[in-house]
Amino acid sequence: MTAHEIDYEIIGEEMQYVEIELDPQEGVIAEAGSFMMMEDGIKMDTIFGDGSQNDKGIMGKIFGAGKRLLTGESLFMTAFYNEVVGKKKVSFASPYPGKIIPLDLTMYGGKFVCQKDAFLCAAKGVSVGIEFSRKLGRGLFGGEGFIMQKLEGDGMAFVHAGGTTSRKELRPGEKLKVDTGCIIGFSKGVHYDIEFVGGIKNTIFGGEGLFFATLTGPGVVYIQSLPFSRLANRVLSLATNAGGKSRGEGSILGGLGNLLDGDNNF
Fold first, then answer.
1. Which of 38, 112, 122, 189 lies 20 to 30 angstroms, CA to CA, from 103?
2. Does residue 206 or residue 173 have the better pLDDT?
3. InterPro entries in the record, alphabetically (predicted)?
């Protein structure tokens, strides 16, 4: 194995964190801001690159960092190493309510593609890169743009999803249609594309967007029930209307409903 072999435990229900146990000289990489706590004896280091074992040279580091910049992430990652005798633990927390999904990359052909903000942490040696879309339509309307994150290697990686998660195993040729924002990620071999919803009523009044994603097997797909973008939009909408009149959730009787439930500013 090129990646470090780590042990872990996922703790919690709706606001989870992952506790990783490191043997001497073992390490783990993580996105900046995901660190929660660590025991004495673990050293934290800021690294420039994609976190893999092959980014030793300066050009490799620059290329790896450049790939991360394209996904909207920081140029730098944090690495944590156990530098003492005996096992030590370090923990990383999910950024919002949902689930942490452990991925043994050896079970997915050494590659897993996920949305840009899903990656949480991984064993040192796992490469965190980018996956380009080769289709213009998928890039423009696919919800995730032209670029998604790509996790490669033979170690453990951890991704985070909002709400409740669903794991689907697709047979060869089997197709699953998904809201573009609800995709967490998919294994090597799954074909990702977009499809027009169709129909004038669906397009104008459906409220679900003009496109949905199509995922075709064979492979494994992970779906989330509450994408962060959906949560953020709802919070922003409520915050915008907090100081003024409610829009009544789209109802023509919204104002009357506020009078009935006492929500008025008389």
1. 38
2. 173
3. AIM24, AIM24_sf, Trp_RNA-bd_attenuator-like_dom
pLDDT above 60 for 54:
no
For the stretch 59-108, pLDDT in tens is: 555 555 555 555 555 567 889 999 999 999 999 998 888 899 999 999 99
Sequence ranges of the domains in the chain: 7-232
Residues 6+ apart with CB under 8 A from 134: none
- Rounded to whole angstroms, how far apart are CA atoms 74 and 59? 18
What secondary structure letter does DSSP report for 181? G
Give the per-residue pLDDT at 81.
Answer: 94
Structure-token pair, residue 55? 């980014």
pLDDT reported for residue 102: 96
The neighbour count for residue 59, using CB atoms within 10 Å, is: 8
